[in-house]
Design goal:
The protein is of the alpha/beta class. The protein has a single domain, classed as 3-Layer(aba) Sandwich (Rossmann fold). 25% of the residues lie in helices and 35% in strands. A hairpin with a 3-residue loop joins strand 7 and strand 8. The model has no long low-confidence stretch (mean pLDDT 96). It binds glutamine. Glutamine binds next to helix 4. Catalyzes the hydrolysis of glutamine to glutamate and ammonia as part of the biosynthesis of pyridoxal 5'-phosphate. The resulting ammonia molecule is channeled to the active site of PdxS.
């Protein structure tokens, strides 16, 4: 089997941790800073951070169109926290989306001021019964399109969803030692590569 090569969009946010997790899960991982670096990737992670900042940088460096093409070529993309907001087709209270690739409606900063950051253990379908999820000013997924799947909910709110080759998590899967969600994403990449 040829090794999988996964990129982590490295404009802002938690990049190094994702790279380390992917490597521990058996892939080759690179921090992506230039659009040309997307060319030989099998999959891409868009990390957490600040969605408006990442979006501005994506426009500035030509990633908006390049990542849209990447997704439209059916290459898997995993958006975590701000990355999920960037992937979404719709953002609650905002007219425009960013990449607009994944059929979900997201709500930003959805857990309120009292609960800005917290960690909970929850079941994630097809991933783990006891997945540790770290939330930091997290969004949640209000709606999933008709072909989408809900993989996890916390307090009745959807926090992990899949729509074909797109995966979104409201939390930060790179901030624990648990790489099962990264493994799940690598299985998706394998599925779409053949
Ligand atoms: N940890 C995060 O990625 C936070 C997301 C951030 N609140 C946003 O709206 O972009």
């Amino acid at each position: 089997m040829i090794a999988m090569k996964i990129g982590v969009l490295a404009l802002q946010g938690a990049v190094a941790e994702h790279v380390r997790m992917l490597e521990e899960a058996g892939a080759t991982a690179v921090a992506v800073k230039k659009v040309e670096e997307l060319d030989d990737l099998d999959g891409l992670i868009i990390p957490g951070g600040e969605s408006t900042t990442i979006s501005k940088l994506m426009h500035k460096y030509g990633f908006m169109e390049a990542v849209r093409e990447f997704g439209k070529a059916r290459k898997p993309i995993f958006g975590t926290c701000a990355g999920a907001i960037l992937l979404a087709k719709r953002i609650s209270g905002q007219e425009d989306s960013h990449l607009g690739l994944m059929d979900i409606l997201v709500e930003r900063n959805a857990f309120g001021r009292q609960k800005e950051s917290f960690e909970v253990t929850m079941p994630v379908a097809g991933v783990a019964a006891d997945y540790p999820a770290v939330f930091i000013r997290a969004p949640y997924i209000r709606e999933v399109g008709e072909n989408g799947e809900v993989l996890a909910k916390y307090e009745e709110k959807i926090v992990v969803a899949r729509d074909g080759h797109y995966l979104a998590a409201a939390f930060h899967p790179e901030l624990t030692e648990d790489n099962r969600l990264h493994r799940y994403f690598l299985d998706m990449v394998k599925e779409y590569r053949s």
